[in-house]
Amino acid sequence: MFALLNPQGLDAPLAWSGGVQRSGREFLSDVQTFARSLPAHGVPINLCVDRYAFAVAWVAAMARGQTSLMPPNPLLATLRQLQQTHPDSYLVEDARGLAGLGLESLGLPLRTVRLDPSLSLESEPAIRIEPELQAVCLLTSGSTDTPQPHLRTWRMLVECMQAGAHAIAAELGWPSLSGLHLLATVPPQHSYGLESSVMLAFGAGAVLHSARPFFPAEIKDSLEALPRPRALVTTPLHLKNLLQSGLSLPPVDLVLCATAPLSLTLAAQAENLMGPLIEIYGCTEAGQIATRRTVACERWRTMGSLKLSREVSDEGDVFFVQGGYLQAAQPLADTLQLVSEREFYLGGRANDLINVAGKRNSLSHLNMQLNRMEGVEDGCFWLPDARPDDVVRPVAFVVAPTLTAEQVIAGLRQRVEAVFVPRRVIHVEALPREATGKLTSRALRDFALQHLNLKTAAP
């Protein structure tokens, strides 16, 4: 069995919650208190927004031998789907509550994490978890399809965390991540959020922050309130908004970024204004896989003993990752340019190629070119359904209040082939992104059809 926390470090800080530090011993006491309120059997759906409450609820469920479901969002449609596949499920929320979402219509039992610092500590708060316990069921974001479940054992999570902590520390030339205070803009229910804002606190000596700030001013204030060394765990979308806010940002000792590749320009800006930046490449199916110090090298290197391979077929190459904490080779949804079995350059998504007038391109590549443009705060391409005897042209949706449609088109003409330059550029206030910054194909399609019905005039 694996100890949840190092028994010798139980009195060291583990988290910032409510503006005060909580030690590992206090955390385990909170876990044992909450675990007593849980049903003996069932499948918890962890909806906690507060990261500390999330961690308490998750570990309490593991202490009961239960596998927590981590939905990509708290929408009723998502939860109803989980309810159908797991009829014995129950909801877990924190004291903030989720009022207004209509969760009561599900008719599921509800448990609320309510922390009371005045309660006396358990005399023996040690908790040990079976290595092969199915600790969590993560769901993909559904970027290109219906969200799919992926189970992780406690052993896999621990070994993944250990490989990640070693790789990050090595990139920075640090002996370890001990004492690093983590502020994250990503939800803990996401694979990246779980690994980089919770597991690093459990096993690498880092200290998690309970908040999940969203707006640039909130991120700035939260960082300033943390002692150093401190790190920001974020996404390209959140980082771009922060850097373009014009705020005077406090220095950090590490910026971790994942969910989509960063441009060299944005990475360099982050390093100049904040501190060293490391990107993580991974996926829900396999966890974190590789890192790179973006300003130093475009090439990625796998963590730990993970290795990459390629399988050639008539339908296209498929890339696999294997070894380390993975029990079997896992296919990847991205195209890679392998330098060796441990080093690679990242291409686009294997399933996001589009064909316009006989030419092929990757939507992820087109989106990257769009978002690199000065004045574009956010944007994406969308390809309408094909029509008989007609060439379908992509449409661009942009959050770019200082640019006209003509200026966006002119900028794209300098970056992409003519057939991929959109005939229509539609200005919107925001794209329907998930909390991690991802944009699912279904959400984008619904969003696009709604706006195209309202705005059909070409610029």
Provide structural commentary:
This protein is of the alpha/beta class and 459 residues long. It is 28% helix and 26% strand. It is built from eleven helices and 27 strands. The strands form seven sheets. The chain has an eleven-stranded mixed β-sheet, sandwiched between helices. It has a three-stranded parallel β-sheet with strand order 4-6-7, sandwiched between helices. A three-stranded mixed β-sheet has the order 5-9-10. It starts with a strand and ends in a 5-residue tail after the last helix.
Write the layout of secondary structure elements.
Blueprint: E1 2-3, E2 13-17, E3 20-23, H1 24-35, E4 43-46, H2 51-63, E5 68-70, H3 76-85, E6 89-94, E7 110-113, E8 128-129, E9 134-139, E10 149-153, H4 154-172, E11 181-184, H5 191-203, E12 207-209, H6 216-225, E13 230-234, H7 236-243, E14 254-257, H8 264-273, E15 277-283, E16 287-292, E17 300-302, E18 307-311, E19 318-322, E20 330-331, E21 334-338, E22 343-349, E23 353-356, E24 359-362, H9 363-371, E25 378-382, E26 395-399, H10 405-413, E27 424-427, H11 441-454
In short:
This protein is an alpha/beta fold. The protein has 11 helices and 27 strands.
Uncertain segments: 454-459
Biggest sheet, open or closed, and with what strands and sense?
11 strands, mixed
Number of strands: 27
Broad shape: globular
Q: What structural class do you assign from the helix and strand content? A: alpha/beta
Strand order of the largest sheet: 3-2-12-11-13-14-15-16-17-22-21
Given the structure, what is the number of helices? 11
Q: Strand fraction band? A: 25-35%
Q: How widely separated are the two ends? A: 64 Å
Q: Estimate the helix proportion, in percent.
A: 25-40%
Q: Radius of gyration from the CA trace?
A: 22 Å
What's the overall average pLDDT, rounded? Answer: 88
